[in-house]
Every structure is written in C-alpha cells, then in structure tokens.
Amino acid sequence: MGIPVNSTVHKVMTNTRRRRHRLDIFNELETLIAMQREKMTLMQDQFLWKHGSDKFKPVFVTKLTWELTRKHEQPVAWWKAIWFQHCTPKYAVHNRLSTGNRMLAWNANANFTTRWSELMDLSMDTSRGLLETFLTRYTIQATIYSLWKERNDRRHGATPTTAATLARMVDRQVRDRCLAFHQQGNFKLAA
Q1: CA quadruple 31, 33, 39, 41: dihedral positive or negative?
Q2: Which of 72, 87, 109 is the endpoint of a domain?
Q3: Is residue 159 located within the same domain as residue 179?
Q4: Which of 51, 86, 122, 139 would bridge with 55, disulfide CB 3.0–4.6 Å?
Q5: Could you give the angle at the alpha carbon of 74 between the alpha carbons of 68 and 78, nearest 5°?
Q6: 22-64: per-residue pLDDT in tens?
Q7: What highest taxon heads this organism's lineage (predicted)?
C-alpha cells in the first residue's frame, strides 16, 4: 500500500497519496482512508467519557464508570457482613467465598471449611454493641484474607507461614485498625 510499517495514523491521513492497487481489498482500504480524510477537521482531539447509554462528556466520574462496567445483580443477604463502615476493601471476602464454592464443586473432598453461612451469621449479628460487631466483622475478614493469601503464597512456592505467625499478623492488623480510629478521633471504635 506504500505505507511504512512505522507510520502513525496522523502520517497516513496527512502525508500519503491515494494509489491504485491490483488487489481489491487494498483499493477498498484506500477508499476508506479517503472517506476518513474528508471527515477530518482541524480541531484538537478530545477525550470523552461515557456517562450513560448515549451520553459522552469530557469529565471522568468514577461512580458512573463503575455503574457502566459492573455486572448488576440482586443484592445478597450477607452483603453487610462484607461491606461495612470502616472495612478494608482488600479484606472483602466475596470473591474468596465464591472461589471456595467453585473448589468444592470441583472436588467434593476438598479440605477447607464450607460453613460460610455460620461465619456470615456471626458477622451479621448486630445484637452486640457497635465496637464488638465491628471487631467481629473485621477479625473474620482479616483472618479469611490472611488464610486465603497464605494458601495462594504456598501454591506459588512461597515458604509456609506458621499458624502462630498468621495469628500474630491478624492480631496486628486488627490492632492497627483500632489505633487508626484512635488517631482519627473516632473513639467509639478505638478499642
């Protein structure tokens, strides 16, 4: 086609001339390039972000992008056990719960707990005070996250961590979170 391999779209649109080719496919490409040249304007390119099904604006809004890209499903009963005020997003266990369910389907003899409903019931129980409810939820999340991370580390050849070390790590994570509340002046949750 006479277009160098290292050419940019800008060079093709501004510096190349139309040629005649033996193959029809190349002539069709030349026609498409010519049609695009006719549509060109001298305006600067502009980034547009999708804000709905047919709306595009030059402003990026994270919430709208999330709403347009996520898979919408009905809320589940246990969502508060995972997403609660002051939770740590990386500890949210919903993906790890589904991973456990998939693993159980692949191997009925899998060696891990399937008593997620009991953990979720414990985490959703709000009959205790605000502090105890938070500590229960946060400790469950930190524990599940640490066990999940340890399992993945072992699968990828890392040196195993002892149970005592894992327990100290979870304890430290929970204590650090409570210290952060104290520093932020949130004394309701500063244990």
Answers
A1: negative
A2: 72
A3: yes
A4: 51
A5: 115
A6: 888 888 888 888 888 888 777 777 888 888 888 899 899 888 8
A7: Eukaryota
